[in-house]
Write a structure and sequence with these properties.
Elements (H helix, E strand, L loop, with lengths): L1 H11 L2 H23 L4 H33 L6 H46 L2 E5 L2 H9 L3 E4 L2 E5 L1 E4 L2 E4 L6 H11 L3 E3 L6 H13 L5 E5 L2 H16 L5 E3 L8 H8 L2 E5 H11 L15 E5 L1 H7 L5 E6 L8 H31 L3 H14 L4 H7 L4 H17 L2 H5 L4 E4 L4 E4 L1 H8 L13 H10 L4 H33 L7 E4 L2 E4 L17 H8 L8 E7 L1 H5 L4 E6 L6 H8 L3 E3 L7 E4 L3 E3 L2 H17 L4 E5 L2 H13 L5 E3 L7 H6 L7 E5 L12 H6 L2 E5 L6 H8 L8 E9 L3 H6 L2 H10 L10 H48 L3 H21 L4 H12 L7 H6 L2 H38 L5 E7 L4 E7 H6 L5 H31 L10 H30 L9 E2 L8 E2 L9 H5 L35
Parallel strand pairs: 6-17, 6-18, 7-9, 7-10, 8-9, 10-17, 19-25, 20-25, 21-23, 21-24, 22-23, 24-25
Antiparallel strand pairs: 1-3, 2-3, 4-5, 11-16, 11-29, 12-13, 14-15, 26-27, 26-28
Helix pairs in contact: 2-4, 2-6, 3-4, 4-7, 6-7, 7-8, 12-13, 12-19, 13-15, 18-19, 19-20, 30-36, 30-37, 31-32, 31-34, 31-37, 36-37
């Protein structure tokens, strides 16, 4: 098949050749424009930026002017609610048109704009300094940047500056392949460029072009070191042309500095911080607390790492949950420990029997026992070693295939003697009857770990002749018992996973008395990240460290759904081709492979396959020693901390000097990668360590053969192996790559082809012998494809669940946004009143319950029925709804005016006597049950004679009620997601049930939000005794799921920089002095009580 595809691509050309061919005419235009710029002065070159901006403004000026006129019309008090809705829809469509037209004009000026960036890079590379006539931007830069200085009327831009602590001298000019990459990125695609081909420089082209719009460009990186480095490295190129640039990771969350960073033309930052700022903005209490503006254009560096690896888990902002510190992990830990010990003892015995039977030629019974061992403890080291012997793995696969036929019909015979069964491929575990017996042997209750059949039990209760009250109490006891046992079984399952499927120094490490997850792709510690559903707490119990309290989700989003909110998104990486299908299906991102500037000279050798790990590691050590003697630097890629430390120990004994880079040494990453190109140097690192940092080679190293890559194991994903290989062969440098594989490797055990095992058995290989052939390498790649398909399925499933949440999130966040800004809030309130009226009418009109209808209107809307009983029974729902709405809305408007009149005397007195003390004031507002503090601007309240109070009340009430109900809804959705997973046991799709149930939950949420907001607004008023207070706004302290990139140092993170407050402290009032509220009473008799 592969050969046929090669023939077809030679005849007709492949996709990537066609992509590049389509871009070639644009590159020719860029180079023509570039040739015209050499005669321009530096000032004339800079003037081009202003010309481009003016072209863009002129192209969309009519639409922008029309939007301003529509907004003025919508804000008029005479504009009716229905008219406002139409005006806002027109504004939205015009804003979409502006985005479309902006893209059109950018495509027109692209060749000239790219040429300007290339010419600027050329002048920076050919001169020690570039001198221009100083403008205001130059003077501002000179005050803070060392590379800009002002002399008389001129500004001097030095072409060397500091980037993340390293002094750099600009020496780069864009190659044609980098121009191709720039065009691909501007078109909203993924540019796959090999390591060392200048992705960072290539990105400067579309960044400059799209920054001209003033809508903002976000450059997203995988860690804060790269974000800060790239912003400082590329910054002067943009600042020379008057474009502003900043990095959000330099500033604290929710700070004025971070808000300013988002207002820059170009903003660098990490994916986590961009996502968390979006969530924080949607938890903000005031519009002034928002930091992000509308998301426009984003370029994601190392796009596969961000949009695939990091997208496996959602971003979560959480807070304390009631009884979050209550759990049963410590109580049941000893039972699970006994269970695992019993299984391990039994499996050891069965494995010995299996070996004996197979040696005697009894393959049937031996294979049966072998399968039982495999399903009991698949990671048993003795089993893994035995499976590498001749014919053993083939026998296991034959036996497994036999018992798996007819939908595992006979598999219960294998499992019945086990205490629990492990499915390593699906990462699941199931307790057996024998395991339950062992667990309950020390308890009197034999049903201690067995869920009651709720349906059957309730049916029995219903059929009984007991009183209704007794039936209700029995049902409550039954459901409470079900809830307790569900949590208990969940605890046991998570503990079993922790003990059998999660190994220390492989999936996680224990540091500072905490369990920290190791990213299987990058080998980095994921600080702050925790396994979900109590698994992390189970591992903490296993490792005898402090079990952290459970938290409640306050806001969450997947990276997939966050990045899909941008108008345009692009990405760059060296390893995207293998995931091209996923990029297109989820993000609609096309992958374009960019050719290298110089031909690739790296020698990629076929895999060396051994039977056991011991043989493999011995061969790796010998290869390392041989290569060091040749003076070549070696990068050894590993897949876990355990393997890197094992190899380090062996090399230390052999006296080979080396560096180790794994999750425990993460803080030294930049230093270790910088030394990886030294002649004879050995660096042991996880496969993707040092992404974004090139390993540069000295001339003598290139002569010796360049960097040697040794992979100690094939990763589950082909692109991770390609990333490791890509460290060598940079910019035409020589190099080589060699992967060592054994049949004991995880990939080979789970998905390895039967052909390889059969081939090794047929050849009768002795210990230490190896096979190497292109067919074997391709067979391994097929195994990797199986894993990639499985992983894609997991990520897609996560996204499908979050898509349901995202539809709800968009509705709620839109309501919050309208409340924060206030411009469309009056329309929202009117719609909520209408929806509430419609719900009341719909619920009661069908059954003609007029009395209940009247009671509901009084209870919820504090209004009498505007219709008689006859009208209620005879009229349609639409007519009744209109009448109720008109009556209710009129009374609400009258009440708003009354509140303004009631509050204005106090506001007037405070403004006239204490306006120097207060800028914003707080007005208490209550419905008799709860009180909300409403914040409004004192001057605006005075000037409008209290007219702005109604809007301030609507804002505060809407935000407070939405936030309270939304948090509870998120908890319900978390519980629902966990509960529906049991549907698979009933041959039902959990996702379909989740969608159906979540729709009902959200429908109930919207109804509750509308009713609570409308009821509070209509029923509430000023308390009998009210006082104007100062506004004391405090930021809430929430926890993020990935806090590693949350700003500067940990010390700074704990103590945010204080900023000037708009309100002065309230002066202390003596008890016998007149009360400041203006009542005329003494303070002790009024508000001093």
């Amino acid at each position: 098949m592969a050969g046929l595809l090669n023939i077809i691509s030679k005849l007709f050309g492949n996709k990537y050749d066609k992509d590049v061919k389509e871009i070639t005419p644009i590159i020719e235009k860029i180079n023509i424009e570039f040739g015209k710029l050499s005669t321009l002065t530096n000032d004339d070159l800079r003037e081009k930026t202003s010309d481009f901006k003016n072209q863009i403004l002129d192209f969309t000026s009519n639409e922008k002017q029309e939007i301003e006129e529509l907004k003025k019309e919508a804000n008029l008090s005479t504009t009716q609610t229905d008219e406002k809705e139409g005006l806002y829809k027109k504004i939205d469509s015009l804003e979409e048109l502006i985005i479309t037209k902006t893209e059109e004009v950018l495509n027109l000026i692209l060749p000239q704009a790219f040429a300007v960036v290339k010419e600027t890079a050329k002048r920076f590379a050919e001169n020690d300094e570039v001198i221009v006539t100083a403008n205001e931007n130059d003077k501002e830069l000179a005050a803070t940047k060392d590379f800009v200085s002002i002399t008389a009327e001129n500004a001097s831009y030095k072409t060397s500056w500091d980037a993340a602590g390293t002094e750099i001298v600009w020496d780069m000019i864009h190659y044609d392949v980098q121009l191709i990459g720039g065009v691909v990125l501007h078109e909203g695609k993924i540019a796959e460029m090999q390591t060392g081909e200048g992705k960072t420089l290539s990105a400067t082209l579309p960044i400059y072009l799209n920054a001209l719009t003033g809508l903002g460009v976000h450059l997203v990186t995988v860690n804060n070191y790269l974000a800060k480095r790239d912003a400082q490295w590329m910054g002067p190129l943009f600042q020379f042309h008057g474009l502003s640039i900043d990095c959000i990771d330099n500033h604290q969350p929710n700070s004025d500095e971070r808000r300013k960073a988002y207002l820059a033309d170009i903003t660098y930052g990490t994916n986590n911080e961009f996502g968390f700022d979006y969530l924080r903005d949607n938890m903000a209490k005031r519009s002034g607390d928002l930091v992000q503006r509308k998301l426009h254009y984003s370029i994601v560096d190392e796009v596969d790492s961000v949009l695939i690896d990091d997208a496996r888990t959602p971003l979560i902002i959480s807070g304390p949950t009631p009884q979050g510190d209550k759990h049963e992990y410590n109580e049941f830990k000893h039972k699970v420990d006994q269970l695992v010990a019993a299984q391990r003892k039994y499996v050891t015995t069965i494995l010995a029997d299996a070996k004996k039977l197979i040696a005697e030629g009894n393959n049937k019974d031996g294979g049966f026992n072998l399968l039982r061992v495999f399903r009991g403890l698949p990671r048993n080291k003795a089993l893994i070693k035995y499976l590498s012997e001749d014919g053993v793995k083939i026998q296991l696969q034959k036996t497994e295939n036999y018992y798996m036929q007819d939908q595992n019909k006979e598999m219960h015979l294998v499992d019945e003697e086990l205490y629990f069964v492990i499915d390593e491929k699906s990462n699941s575990i199931e307790l057996t009857e024998k395991g339950l017996e062992l667990m309950t042997s020390s308890t009197e209750d034999k049903d201690f770990f067995i869920l009651p059949d709720v349906g059957a039990e309730i049916a029995v209760i219903e059929k009984s002749e007991k009183k209704d009250t007794d039936k209700a109490s029995e049902k409550d006891v039954l459901l409470r018992d079900f809830g307790i046992k569900s949590e208990r079984i969940h605890t046991i399952n998570q503990l079993l996973k922790a003990y059998t499927l999660f190994e220390k120094d492989i999936e996680y490490v224990v540091m500072d008395n905490k369990v920290k997850i190791v990213d299987e792709q990058t080998g980095r510690i994921m600080d702050g990240r925790r396994y979900s559903d109590g698994l992390h707490q189970a591992i903490e119990a296993k490792e005898n460290v402090k079990i952290e309290a459970a938290t409640q989700t306050y806001a969450t989003v997947t990276l997939q759904n966050y990045f899909r909110m941008y108008n345009k998104i692009a990405g760059m990486t060296g390893t995207a081709e293998t995931e091209a299908g996923e990029f297109w299906e989820i993000y609609k991102l096309d992958v374009v492979a960019i050719p290298t500037n110089r031909p690739l000279q790296r020698d990629d050798k076929d895999d060396l396959v051994f039977k056991t790990n011991r043989e493999k590691y011995n061969a790796v050590i010998e290869d390392i020693v041989k290569l060091t003697e040749l003076g070549r630097p070696i990068l050894v890629g590993t897949t876990s901390v355990e393997i890197s430390e094992l190899l380090s120990t062996i090399l230390r004994k052999r006296g080979v000097k080396h560096n180790v880079l794994n999750a425990k040494m993460h803080q030294r990453e930049a230093d270790i990668v910088a030394e990886a190109g030294i002649a004879g140097g050995v660096t042991i690192a996880t496969n993707m360590a040092g992404r974004g940092t090139d390993i540069k080679l000295a001339p003598e190293v290139k002569t010796a053969g360049g960097l040697a890559i040794i992979g100690t194991e094939r990763h589950d994903s082909r692109r991770v192996d390609r990333q490791l290989r890509g460290r060598a062969g940079r910019q035409g440098d020589p190099g080589s790559s060699q992967f060592y594989v054994s049949l004991e490797d995880k990939l080979m055990r789970l998905f390895g082809s039967e052909r390889i095992a059969k081939l090794m058995d047929r050849m009768g290989l002795e210990e230490g012998e190896v096979i190497q052939h292109s067919m074997v390498s391709k067979s391994i790649e097929r195994a990797q494809k199986k894993v990639e398909e499985n992983n894609f399925g997991v990520r897609k499933r996560l996204l499908e669940y979050d898509d349901v949440m995202n539809q709800q999130r968009e509705v709620i966040y839109k309501k919050r946004k309208h409340a924060l800004h206030g411009d469309r809030l009056s329309l929202d309130v009117a719609n909520m009143i209408y929806d509430t009226c419609e719900n009341i009418v719909e619920e009661l009109q069908a059954s003609k319950e007029y009395e209940n209808f009247k009671l509901e209107l009084i209870r919820l809307l504090a209004t009498e029925s505007p219709v008689s009983e006859e009208e209620f029974k005879d009229n349609s729902i639409e007519v009744l709804t209109e009448k109720v709405y008109e009556n209710c809305y009129k009374s609400y408007q009258a009440k708003s005016s009354a509140i303004a009149s009631q509050a204005f005397p106090v506001i007037k007195d405070v403004f006239e006597n204490q306006s120097a003390t207060y800028e914003n004031i707080v007005i208490p507002f209550t419905d008799g049950l709860k009180t909300l503090q409403v914040v409004t601007n004192l001057k605006e309240a005075h000037d409008s004679e209290g007219g702005n109070i109604a809007e301030a009340i609507e804002k505060s009430v809407t935000l407070a009620i939405i936030d309270d109900i939304w948090k509870e809804h998120l908890r319900e959705m978390d519980d629902l997601k966990q509960a529906v997973q049991t549907a698979s046991y009933e041959q039902k799709d959990p996702l379909l049930i989740y969608k159906f149930e979540s729709f009902n939950l959200f429908k109930a949420l919207i109804n509750k939000v509308n009713k609570d907001i409308v009821s509070f607004l209509i029923k509430a008023g000023l308390p009998t005794q009210s006082a104007v207070q100062e506004d004391r706004h405090r930021a809430e302290n929430h926890q993020t799921s990935r806090p590693e990139n949350s700003g500067n140092s940990p010390q700074q993170a704990g103590k945010p920089k204080p900023k000037a407050q708009p309100i002065r402290a309230e002066e202390k009032v003596e008890r016998n002095a007149p009360c400041p509220c203006g009542s005329g009473k003494k303070f002790k008799k009024c508000h001093g009580k």
